[in-house]
Design goal:
434 Repressor (Amino-terminal Domain), mainly alpha
Length: 167
């Protein structure tokens, strides 16, 4: 039998958590006041998730159709080539899009986080602990509605490759 030693407080790593009095945290602390709206959002998002196709291209097409975006319009919003978008939509591009392309598409579509993560997953990507992964995930979770240019500027300022080349 192994010798089990009693752990002391010194042996256990401690993490001290603090609450920062920021606008974001104040908004989060007000969530109970917005419970009916939150419940509606969750129900609607869940219903949409149930409707989404199983493949990357079909899901991209679904979101574009719901938003009434043409390939040309989305290309302008995410700086991804219009022909590339068309090929992903119709499934003729058999190569896996890189993570920057998928995140750029999510930014251009202004997808809420659950739909962004779904599209990332369907493209065959996951987020790990790498700085670029953390940066891209943070973009998706905090910058919904921001322009591709703002996202690229933030990424460049932290030394992370931008989502798409600016013309």
């Amino acid at each position: 039998m192994k010798n089990h030693q009693k752990q002391t407080a010194k042996d256990i790593a401690m993490v001290k958590a603090t609450y920062q009095d920021t606008a974001f945290n104040k908004a989060v602390s007000d969530v109970p006041a917005h419970t009916p709206e939150f419940k509606t959002y969750v129900e609607q998002a869940s219903a949409i998730m149930d409707e989404l196709p199983g493949k990357f291209g079909a899901t991209l097409a679904y979101h574009m159709d719901k938003l009434r975006l043409t390939n040309e319009a989305l290309a302008g919003l995410c700086l991804i080539n219009e022909d590339t978008i068309r090929k992903y939509r119709n499934g003729s591009n058999k190569s896996k899009p890189n993570i920057q392309t998928v995140v750029a598409l999510c930014v251009g579509l202004r997808l809420p986080l659950p739909f962004s993560l779904d599209l990332v997953h369907k493209a065959g990507h996951t987020f790990a602990g790498e700085p670029s992964d953390i940066a891209y995930l943070t973009i998706l979770s905090t910058m919904t509605g921001s322009s591709i240019y703002d996202c690229n500027a933030l990424l460049r300022s932290t030394g992370v490759p931008p989502l798409a080349k600016e013309k």
